[in-house]
Design goal:
- It is a single chain.
- The chain is of the alpha+beta class.
- It has 2 domains: 93 residues, no CATH class; 53 residues, no CATH class.
- It is built from 4 helices and 8 strands, in the order ββββααββαβαβ.
- The strands form 3 sheets. A 3-stranded antiparallel β-sheet has the order 2-1-6, with no helix packed on it. Strands 3-4-5 form a 3-stranded antiparallel β-sheet.
- Strand 1 and strand 2 form a beta hairpin.
- 9% of the residues are buried.
Length: 176
């Protein structure tokens, strides 16, 4: 079981966890939701009165009022906190199988798909500058190999700070 109180703090909805030893649920409301019952004896476990008062102030007014009404003389006094007042009870299955365990393989697939999509996006941004070196009509190279290497190196130097562009220098037609 899980017991808690739905609270709104600074425009954010949160769950205040409650100690399971001091909670129970025996009834349901008209919407078939469990009604949380909280035992005020929990506050007696806090020996320091100042600290106890600080803790009590963190609870909803329904519990604070019940504590004040009892005057601190409680041994087994239960306060019902309906879902309308933020009481939350979750019943977990008896087979001890973690909740949503069946979704783990699908989450792994989703994680892989996101990785592929990121790689695809990265590849779309990636550019390849292809320099085609001319070849003469007789099949001879127009530039010497050391000149081609210098041309390639100078273009690569110009683009070295651009991480989405690479340079390819070729003599023949290249296509992808």
């Amino acid at each position: 079981m899980y017991y808690g109180i739905l609270r709104t703090v600074e425009n954010k909805v949160t769950l205040q966890d409650l100690p399971i030893e001091y909670c129970r649920t025996r009834f349901k409301d008209f919407n078939n939701l469990n009604i949380l019952e909280f035992n005020l004896a929990y506050f007696l476990t806090i020996k320091d009165e100042k600290q106890r008062e600080e803790v009590i102030r963190t609870f909803p007014t329904i519990i604070q009022k019940a504590w004040r009404k009892a005057g601190g003389r409680v041994y087994d006094e239960w306060v019902a906190i309906t879902p309308n007042f933020g009481g939350v009870c979750f019943c977990f299955p008896h087979d001890q199988t973690p909740l949503l365990v069946a979704s783990i393989p699908e989450l792994k697939k989703l994680d892989n798909a996101v990785g592929r999509e990121e790689k695809r996006d990265e590849n779309e941004l990636y550019k390849l500058l292809i320099q085609k070196m001319p070849i003469g009509s007789n099949g001879e190279l127009v530039f010497q190999l050391d000149e081609v290497a210098d041309i390639h190196a100078s273009v690569a130097e110009m683009l070295k700070d651009t991480d989405t562009v690479d340079v390819l220098t070729t003599f023949g037609d290249t296509d992808l």
